[in-house]
Write the structure tokens for this entry.
Amino acid sequence: MTLRLASSTVLVALFSLAGTAVLAEEPPKKIDAKDIKVEIKDAELTLNGQKVTLPCDTESVEKVFGKPSRSVYLGNTALVWDDVGISAYQDRDSKKIISLSFALRESNAVQAPEKTFQGKVLVDGSNVTADTKVPELVGTKKGKPFVQSDIVEQLWSIKHDGGVKVSLSAANKKGDGIALVEYSFSKR
């Protein structure tokens, strides 16, 4: 009798554990990297049709891309979605996301995604790819123009009212090809 009671207790315990594990685990959100559409129009950001206003909670971005692959602490925390070529920075104090970056070219930076962004990026109606030449983009896109930095010659930016900035990190100072598109918010 003791043996029978012990084996039933073990079975009940196993079913309880299995049931708990299934209920507690939510399958990770899978998104096809090629299906991601990023639109930046003036100071507004849309990810797959959902408007995102920075700073925002991490959950707002996770609704679109799922949980990040990893995080890297660099003064602020960088959240990285390796499979889709996206990274985000969290504010040190509030933990809200203050920038989103889309890697169009590979980088050796520790916070860089393992893969490049394969979706579509539109800035003020113009398609931006790794092969886009910034001077040509400046001449064809609508809205405010990109301005080349005096300090970092590969950086081209548009500063909007309200602390929003859209930046392109070019492959070189002539703007031949885009390595990274960043949408960010700063209180300054």
